[in-house]
Design a protein that fits this description.
Radius of gyration: 25 Å
Shape: globular
Number of domains: 2
Distance between the termini: 27 Å
Structural class: alpha+beta
Largest sheet: 9 strands, mixed
Oligomer: single chain
Number of strands: 22
């Protein structure tokens, strides 16, 4: 079981020593990527080939490398994020045009078809070793051939989107409509994240503008007293809703627990080995996320094919299902505010036609309408008629604390 007791990242100073160490670790990744795609740079890349290295000033507690990018002497930039080289761009990419006075150099006659351009884009993704469905590139893309007045910009701009809507584009590709060259390729690697390489140099802690708002890490003694309390609460909660988790629930059934100090009371996320996830705050279980939930799946790989189905439940039926499910937990009804129409989210764009999922949000404001008093969120699978996630909280519960006789955090 992995136990995390605070925020996992901190602001750092990107010193020359740290930057040099990161570049040394990442160069083999950049070299392998550029060689797979046949990019016109030396193979392998060496430090002598690099004119610029940029690193975000964030560092995780386990030493993993944050976002970084390099620029070669040929003007090629390459990016790195979530354990992947996540794209490249050449200096003449139209997408990165800064000076509109230079736009005329992109005008020209398109000599390759849109179909061919899409195939070139998919071929590039495949060469990079990424299955198309992992970044939704097996779906129909959005393709733009820009025009400025009567002039055509001879570049196909191709994008694939995430059906959850959390990320605007999972893939952006620019294909030269005259030569067929890929001028720019970027993909958001969240759906294909890998363990990031680590660097031995310990960076100097920086001074972040939000440091004063970061709560102290949770006291380990507090955490180990809280864990059995939470597991009993999750067991009871899941039994009430007939959720398929192991019983009795023990630490052997837990993959990871994250606990934060939320102004004196705990906020915890409990991930079981069967991928059910539960939220525990103050002294209660606030909700759950089934392994096949759709809208809160941003930290795991999903494929569109996993969620295809039919719209068998109408909106009112789905709302009634959420209310019935929440009523089983026997919370005080005066703290549950669902007597108004919820905000409803769906899969983005045309994905809504084939992914039958509702995501409901009942946000109830306080009397002065400047803060939330109560919240209910739920995802309903309209094909199977099941509640895939449920979250409920109200400020009425925030003054309660678990019966633990040690402080939640130790003052530094």
């Amino acid at each position: 079981m992995v136990l995390e007791l605070g925020l996992t990242q901190s602001v750092i100073q990107v010193t020359p020593d740290y930057s040099n160490a990161v570049l040394s670790v990442l160069l083999p990744y950049f070299s392998d990527f550029s060689e797979k795609l046949g990019l016109n740079v030396p193979h392998p890349l060496t430090k002598g080939d690099i004119v610029n290295c940029r690193i975000l000033p964030w560092h995780s507690n386990d030493g993993e490398i944050p976002n970084a990018s390099i620029k070669t002497k040929q003007g090629l930039w390459l990016g790195f994020e979530f354990g992947n080289v996540n794209g490249f761009g050449w200096p003449n990419a139209y997408s990165d045009l800064q000076n509109p006075e230079h736009i005329s150099k992109y005008y020209g006659t398109v000599t390759i078809t849109e179909k061919k351009a899409i195939q070139l884009a998919r071929d590039t993704i495949t060469k990079a070793g990424i299955p198309l469905e992992d970044i939704f590139a097996e779906q129909v893309p959005q393709v733009t051939l820009p025009t400025i007045g009567t002039n055509t910009v001879a570049r196909y701009l191709i994008e694939w989107s995430d059906p959850r809507g959390a990320i605007a584009s999972t893939v952006r590709m620019e294909i030269n409509g005259q030569t067929g060259q890929v001028e720019l390729f970027y993909f958001h690697p969240q759906n294909v994240r890998k363990p990031s390489p680590k660097v031995d140099v310990v960076p100097t802690r920086g001074q972040g503008i939000f440091d004063s708002q970061i709560p102290p890490s949770v006291n380990p003694d507090y955490a180990w007293k809280l864990i059995p309390i939470m597991l009993v609460a999750v067991d009871k909660y899941a039994r009430t809703l007939s959720l398929p988790i192991p019983r009795p629930l023990t630490t052997n059934n837990v993959a990871k627990i994250e606990i934060l100090n939320n102004d004196g009371w705990p906020h915890a996320e409990i991930l079981l080995t069967n991928n059910w996830r539960f939220i525990y705050r103050h002294t209660m279980v606030n909700g759950y996320y089934a392994p096949d939930n759709f809208f809160a799946s941003d930290k795991r790989k999903i494929h569109v094919s996993e969620f295809k189905g039919k719209w068998n439940l109408g909106t009112n039926q789905a709302i009634e299902l959420v209310k019935t499910t929440l009523s089983k937990l026997n919370f005080p009804t005066n703290n549950i505010h669902m007597d108004f129409s919820p905000r409803i989210n769906y899969a983005t764009g045309d994905f809504q036609k084939i992914i039958p999922r509702y995501y409901f949000e009942w946000f109830y404001e306080n009397v002065t309408h400047d803060d939330l008093q109560s919240k209910v969120e739920a995802e309903v699978n309209a094909d199977t008629g099941t509640v895939e996630s449920l979250y409920y909280d109200d400020k009425a519960y925030w003054d309660s604390r678990p019966p633990i006789d040690v402080p939640i955090s130790i003052q530094q």
